[in-house]
Amino acid sequence: MRLKDKVALITGAGRGIGEATALKFAKEGAKVVVCDIQLESAEQTAQKIKELGGEAVAVKVDVTKRDEVDGLIQKAIDEFGRLDILVNNAGITADAKFLKMAEEDFDKVVAVNLKGVYLCGQAAAKVMVKQGSGVILNASSVVGLYGNFGQTNYAATKFGVIGMTKTWAKELSPKGVRVNAVAPGFILTPMTEKMPEKVLNMMKDKAPIKRLGTPEDVANAYAFLASDEASFITGAVLSVDGGVVL
Ligand code: NAP
């Protein structure tokens, strides 16, 4: 087991990629703090982990709120005594063409995808630096590398996540904390299921691997980056996209 006895906190872990990552980490031996804005979905993920024989605690947190985020980190420490891995997975979309994008939709996406990553990352890093060890993994996207039609707000945040990842890697790696990002392509989750079938088929055709990704494809990448097998990797952006941008 690659994450035996590590304590991992995953945001947005009530469904989709976050849920798959929580389950994968538990199978690899981690104790998991399952965070989501909806308590019920977080509890469902935690229950699945317990049914696998793992340890998990569910916490309701809105990652855009500093007091809730501070409480979340404290909960991890109270429950499991330390924090080894943070996966900044929670993210949202609110798509519109640039000329029609509403200011509130820009702000909403920035609040979750960018400020939420900053708040959780900073609170976790304080604990990890004190420990002298830790791993922070951030959810970017192929859209954060190449942009995407109709996603001005989302693209801005996913490019921004890469900027934070590289900056934190420079600041925190000398203190024992590795920081990396994952850039998934099109992964079938509740987030993408609402996209038109035509677009999803187009994405499938565009990928040399000729399929859409699964949440488990991304969870496997997170598990590798979180493990000691990646101990010389920091500041990297790992594409998990079936080659869609080649
Ligand atoms: P998802 O299915 O929509 O799941 C996201 C989870 O985050 C949901 O449970 C959601 O809760 C939760 N969440 C939303 N706002 C939150 C907040 N303020 N605080 C805490 N939790 C919150 O998304 P996904 O497709 O698994 O994507 C996960 C991450 O990967 C995101 O950062 C996304 O941008 C990134 N990504 C996804 C894809 C893809 O193709 N799916 C591709 C590239 C990158 P609710 O159910 O209440 O909304």
Written account of the structure:
The chain is of the alpha/beta class. It has a single domain (7-186, 214-239), classed as NAD(P)-binding Rossmann-like Domain (Rossmann fold, 3-Layer(aba) Sandwich). The protein contains nine helices and seven strands; from the N terminus they run βαβαβαβαβααβαααβ. The protein has helices at residues 16-27, 39-51, 66-80, 103-131, 143-146, 152-172, 190-193, 197-206, 215-226, and strands at 7-10, 31-36, 56-60, 85-88, 134-139, 177-184, 237-240. Strands 3-2-1-4-5-6-7 form a seven-stranded parallel sheet, sandwiched between helices. β1 (7-10), α1 (16-27) and β2 (31-36) form a beta-alpha-beta unit. α1 (16-27) crosses α9. NADP nicotinamide-adenine-dinucleotide phosphate binds next to α1, α4 and α7.
Write the layout of secondary structure elements.
Elements: E1 7-10, H1 16-27, E2 31-36, H2 39-51, E3 56-60, H3 66-80, E4 85-88, H4 103-131, E5 134-139, H5 143-146, H6 152-172, E6 177-184, H7 190-193, H8 197-206, H9 215-226, E7 237-240
Parallel strand pairs: 1-2, 1-4, 2-3, 4-5, 5-6, 6-7
Helix pairs in contact: 1-2, 1-9, 3-4, 4-6
The structure holds NADP nicotinamide-adenine-dinucleotide phosphate.
Short description:
The chain is an alpha/beta fold and 246 residues long. It has nine helices and seven strands; from the N terminus they run βαβαβαβαβααβαααβ. The protein has a single domain, classed as NAD(P)-binding Rossmann-like Domain (Rossmann fold), CATH 3.40.50.720.
